[in-house]
User: What shape does this take?
Amino acid sequence: METAGHINIDGRDVPFTDEKNLLEVIRKANIDIPTFCYVSELSVYGACRMCTVEIEGRGLITSCSTPPENGLKVRTNTDPVRQIRKIALELILANHESECPTCTKNTSCKLQDLSKRLGVTKVRFRSVKKPVPVDDSAAIVRNPNKCILCGDCVRMCSEVQGIGAIDFAYRGHDVVVQPAYGKSLEEVQCVNCGQCARVCPTGALTPRPEVDDVWRSLNDKTKTVIVQIAPAVRVALGESFGYGAGELTTGQIVAALKMMGFKKVFDTCFAADLTILEEGNEFIDRVKTGGTVPMFTSCCPAWVKYVEHHHPEMLGNLSTCRSPQQMFGSVAKNVFAPEWGVKTEDLVVVSIMPCTAKKFEAKRPEFQDNGIKDIDHVITTQELAQMINEHGILFRNLRPEALDMPMGFKTGAGVIFGNTGGVMEAALRYVYEKVEGKTLENCDFHEVRGEAGIRTAEVVLAGKTFKLAVVHSLANAKILVEKIRNRQCDYHFIEVMACPGGCINGAGQPVSFQPDYKKRRTDGLYEADKMLQLHKSQDNPYIKELYERKLGGPGSEHAHHLLHTRYSSRRRMKGRSMVIVDGNRKDKIEIRVCVGTSCYLRGAQDLLHHLARYIADKGLQEKVQVKATFCFEKCDKGPTIKVGGTVITHCDFAKATAAIDKAVGALTVEA
Amino acid sequence: MPTLMLRKFEKVCAIIDKHGNDAARLIPILQEIQEEYRYLPEEVMTFVAMSLGLSPAKVFGVASFYAHFALEPKGKYVIRLCDGTACHVKSSEGILNALYKRLGLSAKVPTTKDMLFTVETVSCLGACGLAPVMVVNDKVYGQISPEKAVALVEDIVKKEDGPNV
Assistant: This one.
């Protein structure tokens, strides 16, 4: 790239090109300017003041919000700069619940790190904040007492994920980052992707720990505990033990898990291979029978919940396949437990995932049978590192061990599930052979690889062109969904991963401040694919055997029962409805009109308006209660209203008044 | 009163329509809605968020930032007592205490149970020459004393046909 000018940084001339701010230029010159509120993938906020530098002729300035200019003379460590940083840090620390030794973020906390780096050894100020309760959801723990108000989570949630589940509220020293109206994360449209926790510099947002539950199961003599390792875990866990990002440590992970007492150590990649056969067949079937396209992948539980909240009209586009994690649990409990002679209730299945949303997914009612969950506990890569340390295992000294069969056997297709584009590529490797009826020689589909947020490709299969898209981050998914709704594009198959970069950058992965860790982890997975003998899910002999012996063919009825599911729409905000008309009669008819986004767009507001007028004109006010509610969870068929116990979808004025007349007519004459 | 609630809902819809469902008009929309309800009910804020394509957390963030927006229902008569520098040195605190005592209120319970009065302090009303200043709804009263303030309350109570407060 062409040099746009030079900046003098601490006496040295540093060339700059297209860096978006002075901070990036300084970091390029190997000076790690401290920051809390600066995250390169988010907008500039300029709140923490840690990146303050001194520019000749301009004085003290935050480098994150200063564009590079030719000829600037910058000092990064003068006395005033040091003083400002230290005071800012001291003030932050004064209001921070500093319980470092017992904090989950201990040793990976930026606040702790910078306090040490900048030599802040004493806090002269006292806190004026009153402690507030901790919000403990299925996937994420939010502790506002540790929040330093850098806003990284807020910007991540709205800018990268397009959700805005949390935001700043109140003012001055009352400011707090919270979901709307101070509700808990479970009561709002949070999808549990945990990206907020990934960028949180402190312990204010952290994955919900489940380590103790796993230890308890391991120490319970009546239980047989097995474990699955997700693809992205193997290229990141090593970072907690001094390996570089992307270095494969599968063998050591297996050895460590065996030492902890797991009976069998399996691979989620096996279930990913299984997913490909089911999903591939589902796709072929949809195209053949004129089913709903584009088909979206459904491996990412954050994406699934996003669709449930925000685009329920597109639920039919989601593949019905369960995610690999859940397929694994279902197969382990229903197929293998009886073979191993273990009662379902005595088999404990643990998942090690890079992801916080998987914790939520495992608890979904769809994946439980009589109170027995298919997956009992989900721990993150970070939590695995903690367990290894807690057990005292010297990870670096371990000799690699092999995964157990059959569910430890996988092809390269299952391994690349962990990065953006991987599921699409794995599916293509299967669908190509299935449709073309011939062997695919070169398995690499480079057109779906890469880092761009939305990537598109076309493949020709049996003479027909198929349009494909790969997206990561939910804000990008939102853009694509809007285009589909407006019929501006006509894709057939779309892979969506909620986290930027895919699972390798999940919120459960070790915290990394290396600039290229995402690429390195991704490269690690593609390397792992290369190193394996098999690259196509359909070549996995144990999958073939599973189908032959137990499931019937892909898409068979039994396979469908065990490996597929249905999702349903989910309201975004738990809370009260708006009462429009409220009669006094005890037996009044309840009429609820949905004014959620989907119904709103379909004219629910007009409908409500006309209905309310109708009720007034007919003098029915005393006999009914009319409420505007915020989601009826039938959004694909909106506008939706409910009269008494009857739900009316695709409702219009005539249908609604007919139902109301009927219900009111049935009321007994008032005494 | 069914017709009142209906009227309010229709007003909300009309306000949002008038501003063209434009998220940049959030503050004026909330102001106009508050005129209808005398505060911003949670469910109405959610409705506004949906209509403008914003997240409810964002709307709540804006509503909770400005002291002008009320998140709890306020009384029919909102008494704003100035506690800015000038009024403070002219003993506005005594007036506040007199009002609190008369109405059985406190900083934590600013609204009477019958929803007739809300008492709150503001940092400056911009009428320091008239200190101490009190505003009841839109009407400004200057150079008041604890006795005058309580007398004003009594007048209102009498006008409202004497409900017990």
The CA atoms of residues 86 and 128 of chain B lie 6 Å apart. Helices of chain B lie at 2-18, 26-37, 42-52, 56-65, 85-89, 92-103, 146-159. Chain B has two domains: 2-65, 77-159.
